[in-house]
Amino acid sequence: METLPRKEEVDDVSKAVKALEDTKAGIQGLVDTGIVKLPPFFFMSPEVLNDHPTLTDPHLRTDFQVPIIDLNGVLDPAHQKKIVEKMRSASEEWGFFQVVNHGIPQHVLKEAVDGVRRFHEQPREVKTTYYGRTGMVRYYTNYGLKSKGVSWIDTLACVMAPNPTPEKYPFACRDIFMEYSKHVQSLGEVILGLLSEALGLDPDHLKDIGCSEGYAFHCQYYPACPEPDRTLGVGRHRDPDFFTILVQNQILGLQVLHRDHWIDICPMEGAVIVNIGDLLQLISNDKFKSVDHRVLATSVGPRVSLACLFTTDLQPSDKVYGPIKELLSPNNPALYKGTTIPNYLKTYVSKPGNGLSVLKL
């Protein structure tokens, strides 16, 4: 990789980062060169890596285990009431939960993850045709190549709704993305209905105001890292959407911040992970919580995941989202002003990256 940073550039992070970006080969391209040490521009400070203690064995504390919600029997009114209550509790206290018996066939989940891996493990010359940070289909390294330390992640992002463009999706994953999209949209609408009821609203309320109008796949690839204790796969952040549905392979790494501890979300065969995004926290007036999470770099890999972000971020819109009026009262006044999604995203991408919620800025 002829354009990798030269030795004299190592201390100049901006030059080193630009050199990595210019290769268009991603983290995997760097790994393919046979590195055994992490380039210094990936180094993150101890304050970033260890900002909170990690609970090493959450199984010892049931109150530190990410909730698991079983959707079996969701059409039975008596059972649905229990599911709604569990989802309400999880959304208020954790902002994260795992879902089983969700209706997506296991072979579809597996093939979706395999499709992500197929794309990222293609030859460099195939992937670079998609390299960039804008558009309906884009492949890029890191989330912003920030100078405080580059995260150990490659991403393929594909806008799947409301206007899918299958002819633009990479051949390596096109068919399974179209198949998975149908299933995840159906599951997303079920979850929105349950979340609506958990807020005390009509089951169609969140869908009717546009929370499922658009969604995009963010397909993450984390190669094995030579020095995983010096960087992160993805740094501390909250999702800029209404909610996210994520499927992953069986390699540990995802952590959620709960009661000032980092908690591992252990992979469960056949389960999907759901987390609340900033926009749902905003419209629920803080009833549901968007919480910090991150992904560790690991010495084994690749770690592969597919996150479906329900948002309309690539659709030009002047629609204003604010706290839902049915949730407000003299004792529960609006905590946020209304905002358009483009304006919210401008704030999100410019935030300092110190764990401060963009909703508070």
UniProtKB/TrEMBL annotation:
SUPFAM superfamilies: Clavaminate synthase-like. Its cofactor is Fe cation. Coiled coil: none annotated. PROSITE patterns: FE2OG_OXY. Residues 212-316 form the Fe2OG dioxygenase domain. The keyword Metal-binding applies. GO terms for molecular function: dioxygenase activity; metal ion binding. Pfam families: 2OG-FeII_Oxy, DIOX_N. Keywords: Iron, Metal-binding, Oxidoreductase. Transmembrane segments: none annotated. It comes from the Eukaryota. Belongs to the iron/ascorbate-dependent oxidoreductase family. This is 1-aminocyclopropane-1-carboxylate oxidase-like protein 7. It comes from Hibiscus syriacus (Rose of Sharon).
